Amino acid sequence: EVAAALAVALTLLLAAWRRRGARLVLLAGLLLALGGAGSRLWAAIPAAEGTVRRPDVIVILLDTLRADHAHLLESEDATDGKASGWSSEFFRFSRAYSPGSRTGLALPGIMTSLSARVVGSTLSPDANTLAELLQSAGYTTLGISANPRISRQFGYDQGFDRLILPGGGSDFLVVSLLKLAVAAAPGVSYRLGIADGDLFYPRVTRLRRRAIRLLEHSTRPTFLYLQTMDIHGPYLPPKDYLPSDYEPGEFISYFRFVRLSGDALRSAELAPGLRNLRQRHAAEVRFTGDELERLVSDLEKRGRWEETLVWILSDHGEALGEHGDAGHGGGNLASGVLRIPLWLKLPRSWGLTPRVIHAPVSAYDLLPTTLSLLGLPALRESFGVDLNPLVLDDAADLERVVISQSTAGRPPELRNLYASVRGDWKLHLTVGSEEVLARALYDLGDDPGESTNVAAQHLDVVAELEAAVHTHRLQEARLAYSQRGRTVDFKTMEQLRSLGYAIDEETVRPPRRNEE
Questions:
Q1: What is residue 342's three-state secondary structure?
Q2: 403, 420 in Cβ contact below 8 A?
Q3: Continuous segment of H or E residues that includes residue 221
Q4: pLDDT tens digits, 284-294
Q5: How large is the angle between the packed helices 22-34 and 2-16, nearest 10 degrees?
Q6: What are the angstrom distances between the C-alpha of 292 and each of 60, 87, 480?
Q7: According to the model, what pLDDT value does residue 24 have?
Q8: Of 451, 453, 443, nearest to 421 (Cα)?
């Protein structure tokens, strides 16, 4: 491989004597000679005089999509795990975990490959984001988000040439009044068409159209980040996507649902409402899948799909009554919340056949893998790993422990909770200010529902997975960046509150005039 890479580098060097832009061509040759697996995949071929071709990169984050519901994104003929149409082009990591159980814990890991305890849930200015790294590599960087957390106010504008939060169709006062009506009579409001998802966030349809308009005017290569919120509560899907047996009279409010727990969620009286809620949730996933198919079609028509590198993932999942849990708040470490879809599409010219990869991986891995695929320098510090060995070799095994985290309570009683996964073993660990408060070990092979704690029977496994958590925590303490103060304007605070986010810790400030 090294000899082949050196041969390509020499060829490019000789070609440089005959054309302009010799420095760029020489750089491409050196990258090929010295890079890792990803740089060998990247076709660093002169695309024009003095230029080197890199693929566009698109990251699509579907907020709150749990892994076992991702199949609903696909057409109905995609059964038994066999993808069809646009989705058949993706490698799928079937055992992917989020860095954290909530958006504020997950996004830092996705964007920087470091945890929120290192870079802050409001990003430290010292953090290096995927957008910043690709911007420095010559990419045009564009971001579109329906989630107010992906904004300047939370530090996520770092590295974006343009970051857009599309607004709703009505003004703030009208939206606030409509939300009051929804709170008073949610089922009736939805049935009459007074309430829909667009009341709480811009729909994926609007984001898709905006993304295409931006790409039509962007120079290549382009990095596009797109985050939707349709699969997040309150689950008010377009009615065309509801099943034929949907009963409007069984409507239960998402905001009532997430306040329930334990026996209240298991009661026979709630069962029809819970079924109604799950139907609405599934309808949102199907609606989002149709919009993804339209996005792919739009990109194909413009020649920006075939050779584009694409990630599809979620920040976390959602508990829908399992284990007596609702939503994704609190300290939930169950698979319904931590397991996420992680799909990767490579440029077709790279000639790799997509397949399902079963090794445990993390959304922490997205950033280092992307850099490797593009032949860019690796991160100095990262909680993720390069997944190229798994992509290139069906028999590869990374032999690693995947760490996810959550929190419960408030200071000074705040507890840190960790899930530590190796193979089929998953440890739930509750850590207080100085000591471990609780341990629970699950064998996911025999007990995928995580119902039986077998820690007492496998003390050696508990010790190994617990040691991995302590190593992770020590690394967090060593790397911790200076944190920026959090300031959030009133409008954003109300948007977050309406979506169920806890905003007690936010500091309200007047909005800036130049914010989109």
A1: strand
A2: yes
A3: none
A4: 999 999 999 99
A5: 180
A6: 9, 9, 37
A7: 37
A8: 443
Alpha helices in 67-203, H assignment, sequence order = 103-112, 116-119, 130-136, 172-184, 186-191
Nearest to 141 by CA among 128, 127, 157: 157
Cα separation, 439 vs 507, in Å, equals 35
pLDDT at 497: 55
Mark the ranges of the chain whose per-residue pLDDT is less than 50. Answer: 1-40, 42-51, 78-79, 169, 484-485, 503-516
Instruction: Please name the helix (run of DSSP H) or strand (run of DSSP E) that holds residue 422, with its range, or none.
Output: strand 415-422
Closest CA to 475 of 383, 350, 395, 362: 383
- Tell me how far apart the alpha carbons of residues 105 and 501 are, in angstroms, rounded to a whole number: 13
CB 450 within 8 A of CB 461: no
Nearest Cα neighbor of 142 from 122, 121, 162, 116 is 162
What SS3 class is residue 292? helix
Give the separation between CA 328 and CA 350, rounded to whole angstroms.
38
Q: How far apart are CA 449 and CA 453, in angstroms?
A: 11
Q: What is the DSSP string of 23-43?
A: HHHHHHHHHHHH--HHHHHS-
* Helix, strand, coil distribution of the chain in percent, nearest 5: 40, 15, 45
Ramachandran category for residue 141: left, alpha or beta (phi over 0 → left; psi -120 to 50 → alpha) = beta
Q: Name the amino acid, one letter, at 498.
A: S
Amino acid at 462: V
Residue 63: other Cβ atoms inside 10 A: 25
Structure tokens at 112: 């920087």
What is the distance between the alpha carbons of residues 463 and 472, in angstroms, rounded to a whole number?
Answer: 14
| Structural tokens at position 424 | 């089929």
Alpha-carbon distance of 260 to 327, in angstroms, equals 9
Q: pLDDT at position 185, please?
A: 75
CA 481 vs. chain centroid, Å, equals: 22
Distance, CA of 12 to CA of 298 (rounded, Å): 35
How many helices (H) and strands (E) in the chain?
17, 21
Closest CA to 335 of 63, 61, 66: 66
DSSP 100: B
Contacts of 408 (CB under 8 A, 6+ apart): 330, 331, 414, 415, 417, 430
Label residue 440 left, alpha or beta by phi (over 0 means left) and psi (-120 to 50 means alpha): beta
Question: Model's pTM, two decimal places?
Answer: 0.84
- State how far the Cα of 327 lies from the Cα of 165, in Å rounded to an integer: 24
Q: Where are the beta strands (DSSP E) in 79-237?
A: 90-93, 96-97, 140-145, 162-164, 222-228
Q: The tokens of 261 are what?
A: 């727990």
